[in-house]
Specification:
Arylsulfatase, C-terminal domain, 28% helix, globular, 8 strands, alpha+beta, 9 helices
């Protein structure tokens, strides 16, 4: 639209703005004024032992090898952490400017406002798992928070914290609700998420887990996080990042039927291992639980209305629905599978 004449927003109607900040992303290049604020700080680098690698499956080892801090000097590691935080601070500054401008616009036009701060589309390792990167199923790669504020305090009171498990799919229903749309209406059944306003007010059931799937770097892998356990597994037998036309919808039950070692499971008991440093998926006392998670997660991501698309051509996709309803947000793990 550069150089074109555009009609401005109609201030008499509700406005929706989406601001996507491409930071803090690589290359990590904070402005000098922000970098200087952090250059003299010293950070404690998270504990990591190469012994952790012995129990990682091949797929997760591949992520580690592309992102490892090994080989960096202590000074280089400190600079990497300093610059990352400086870039975050610069992002906070830009977001602050945008928010203040929007609040002034709303007040000038006598309109209420709702602002949703999404803290990244992923997180970042700064030494955890021995890495400086994202890409994995660990907390540092996929754990995020959101801040929601409203000028109407009856909609959402200030200074309240909710620690329920939520997902990115919740943002669409939340935005719709803020605009007066009932996202629970039957015509929006295709939406997977729920309004965060309802989560806060506890008018919707709490989820026992959240989940997702990634395919960057080493190919398809799905993960499921609960309060106590974090589980992940390879979902497809190939390692390419983009689906090839001859792979579309093929071997979708592979991860449910292949030998356990081929599925490359990872399981962390956060009650005993909060930093996710000991993969117990193949330990004898946890193997039954790992296979239970494998069946639960595999049915959800592979058979509960999974869509696979061949992006090289229009309208080329495959729908898999051999396990419709598997994503019920309940775990109900058999007690005999959970080690004392």
């Amino acid at each position: 639209m550069w150089g074109k004449k555009m009609q401005g927003a109609d201030a008499t109607k509700p406005q929706f703005l989406h601001l996507g900040f491409h930071l803090p992303h690589t290359p990590v290049l904070p402005p000098k004024s922000f970098r200087d604020r952090f250059k003299d700080k010293t950070y404690q680098v998270p504990d990591f032992s190469e012994a952790e690698l012995a129990k990682l499956p091949k797929q997760l080892l591949g992520i580690y090898k592309t992102s490892k801090m090994k080989g960096m000097s202590d000074d280089e590691i400190q600079q990497a952490i300093q610059d990352y935080y400086a870039f975050c601070a610069y992002g906070d500054f830009l977001i602050g400017e945008a928010v203040e401008t929007f609040k002034q616009y709303s007040e000038k036009n006598n309109q209420e406002y709702v602002i949703i701060y999404t803290v990244g589309d992923h997180s970042w390792h700064l030494g955890e798992q021995g890495m400086e990167a994202k890409f994995g199923p660990w907390q540092q790669s996929v754990g995020n928070a959101a801040i929601v504020v409203s000028s109407d305090k009856s909609l959402l009171p200030a200074n309240k914290v909710n620690t329920d498990l939520v997902e990115f799919v919740d943002f669409a229903p939340t935005i719709m609700a803020a605009g007066g749309v009932d996202a629970s209406a039957p015509k929006y059944d295709y939406l997977d998420g729920v309004s965060l306003f309802d989560v806060y007010k506890q008018t919707v059931p709490k989820r026992d887990y959240v989940l997702g799937e990634i395919n960057v770097i080493v190919g398809p892998r799905a993960y499921l996080h609960s309060q106590r356990f974090r589980f992940s597994m390879r979902t497809r037998p190939f390692s390419n990042i983009k689906l090839k036309p001859n792979q579309l919808g093929k071997d979708l039950k592979w991860a449910l039927t292949a030998p356990a070692e081929k599925v490359e499971m990872a399981l962390y008991d956060l009650e005993k291992d909060p930093k996710e440093q000991n993969n117990v998926a193949y330990d004898s006392q946890y193997l039954g639980l790992a296979n239970w998670f494998r069946n639960k997660l595999g049915n959800i991501v592979l058979g509960d209305n999974r869509i696979e698309a061949d992006w090289s051509q229009a309208n080329s996709y495959h729908l898999s629905n051999f396990a419709v309803g598997a994503d019920d947000k309940k775990l109900n793990i058999p007690k005999n599978l959970i080690p004392n």
